[in-house]
């Protein structure tokens, strides 16, 4: 896959800075053709949550479901929590930590289920590349590592991020904070945005970010273009896409039959 990506860059660049994310002169590619999900989930693969926008592809839910204690973080709620609710129903040992400064609670899928709500914790915070949560900061911003420390967690089984273009800097900061150590996550469900007239509408920048994600041990095992967005915003480019990654480093249920990590 890496060799194929290099050849595709040479064909349409020939260097990364010359690649147009969404060409409009008859070229047969988009930015997403350079980042195909080339890794296989070694366990059961299933889509969790509502059909359509909101559901996510998950690897090895059956292995997470048997854990006595597991942790799920969700950034970007926007009034819809079917993915989180269905994950928690399948994995009764999971606790959910949700963050979104634009709403006041989880969606009705959790708020109207008393059992799920007992295992859910909502905070109106923003995920960001730095900590800014003094009394005058609005919204209050935390890095992912700071939130883990605040909650007393050293591992996240399932990490969902959908924060409208702020995913790049936020997740890069998380990677950098661990240096060469394995990232303390099992898998990542993330929506990536390449909005027109914004800084990340730049193939070379996205490529550099993606290569950092790969170097950290994350491998994409599924992708799903957000066609709901494309249909709603007629004439819009296919700027939104969902990716699911598995962490092939570390010692956890998705990469080891007998992980030393006990929760």
Automatic annotation (TrEMBL):
Look up the domain of life of the source: Eukaryota
Q: Which residue intervals define the domain Methyltransferase in the entry? A: 33-229
Alphabetized InterPro entries for the sequence: Methyltranfer_dom, METTL24
Q: Name one Pfam family in it.
A: Methyltransf_22
Name assigned to this protein:
Methyltransferase domain-containing protein
This chain's source organism reads Pisolithus microcarpus 441
């Amino acid at each position: 896959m890496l060799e194929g990506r290099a050849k595709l860059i040479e064909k349409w660049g020939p260097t990364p800075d010359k690649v147009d994310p969404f060409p409009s002169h008859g070229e047969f590619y988009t930015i997403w053709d350079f980042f195909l999900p080339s890794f296989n989930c070694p366990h059961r693969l299933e889509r969790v949550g509502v059909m359509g926008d909101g559901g996510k592809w998950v690897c090895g839910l059956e292995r997470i479901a048997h854990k006595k204690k597991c942790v799920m973080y969700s950034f970007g709620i926007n009034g819809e929590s079917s993915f989180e609710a269905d994950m928690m129903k399948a994995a009764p040992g999971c606790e959910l930590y949700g963050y979104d400064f634009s709403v006041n609670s989880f969606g009705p899928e959790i708020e109207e289920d008393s059992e799920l709500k007992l295992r859910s914790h909502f905070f109106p915070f923003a995920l960001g590349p730095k900590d800014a949560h003094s009394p005058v900061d609005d919204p209050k911003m935390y890095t992912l590592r700071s939130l883990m420390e605040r909650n007393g967690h050293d591992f996240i089984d399932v990490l969902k991020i959908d924060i409208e273009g702020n995913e790049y800097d936020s997740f890069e900061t998380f990677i950098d904070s661990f240096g060469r150590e394995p990232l303390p996550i099992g898998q990542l469900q993330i929506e990536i945005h390449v909005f027109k007239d914004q800084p990340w509408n730049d193939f070379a920048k996205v490529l550099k970010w993606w290569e950092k994600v790969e170097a950290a041990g994350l491998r994409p095992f599924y992708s799903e273009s957000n066609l709901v967005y494309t249909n709603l915003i007629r004439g819009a480019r296919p700027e939104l896409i969902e990716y699911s990654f598995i962490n092939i480093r570390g010692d956890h249920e998705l990469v080891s039959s007998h992980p030393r990590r006990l929760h």
